[in-house]
UniProtKB/TrEMBL annotation:
CDD domains cross-referenced by the UniProt entry: Precorrin-4_C11-MT (cd11641)
One of the GO biological process terms: cobalamin biosynthetic process
A GO term, aspect molecular function: precorrin-4 C11-methyltransferase activity
Name of the protein in question: Precorrin-4 C(11)-methyltransferase
Protein keywords: Cobalamin biosynthesis, Methyltransferase, S-adenosyl-L-methionine, Transferase
Region (Disordered): 247-275
Enzyme Commission number(s): 2.1.1.133
Gene responsible for this protein: cobM
Start-end of Basic and acidic residues biased regions: 254-275
Family the UniProt entry places it in: Belongs to the precorrin methyltransferase family.
Top class in the EC scheme: transferase
Keyword Methyltransferase annotated: yes
Superkingdom of the source species: Bacteria
Amino acid sequence: MITFVGAGPGAEDLITVRGQDLLKEADIVVYAGSLVNPGLLSLCREDCEIYNSAKMTLEEVMDVMTVGERSGKKVVRLHTGDPCLYGAIREQMDELEKLDIPYEVCPGVSSFCGAAAALGAEYTLPGVSQSVVITRMAGRTPVPERESIRSFAAHQATMVIFLSTGMLKELSAELICGGYDPDTPAAIVYKATWPEEKVLRCTVKDLAETAAGEHVTKTALIVVGGILEGGYERSKLYDPSFTTEFREASVPSAKEEQKETAPGSESEKRDREER
Ligand code: SAH
């Protein structure tokens, strides 16, 4: 069995309990050395074979994993954050399927969650944004034109931008061109959850200067949107005048008082479903 394991965003204790157990039991670990915290490898047994995939090709990675698995060894492929985002796992899974080798995925805490924690932010605020766009600028890996930053910017939803710290001037221009006000709040979170984490707050127009001022050139996420600053609406879920599946309203809502809406009315049912 080969298990793809999410290592979490950086801090050694942000791997899952399951991921930790898999590392402890592994005979072979292939880890993404460019971003995985090497401290996690101290969980491995003394006799565990450890490979850094930053120095390997896909073919070499597959060779280590498949030869190991076929000789009955437990193999862990350790990816940063959660492997489902920019992890290049599909191509590995497809190779394993061709060879009839079983695999599983153990999820991890993605860096976009680590960044929200560092910012003390909620990406989905009522009255501001109820969606998060996770994307990147095109680099050596192209991004389909229909997914351009400017087209997503038109939605004014919260955006978390990966793999783009080297292109911040272009990123600002795209965001503004797509419809973000140049003064929209933005943040750069460098190495979220690592001891050297930096949280830089700025606006859409001065992303590049802000990063340059702190010598941030990589391993950062850019967060953009009204959720970073300013007002929002209270949640319906915890509103005393709101009835949910688990709690009866303790005070009448302003709307109910005004309209004397009977309980169980269509509007009340709709409210319940919409929380
Ligand atoms: N699968 C990973 C993303 C890998 S792509 C995840 O779920 O987080 C690598 C990019 O992720 C980096 O260029 C950077 O943009 C971002 N990244 C990874 N770890 C980070 C961290 N601790 N803080 C900020 N950004 C991080």
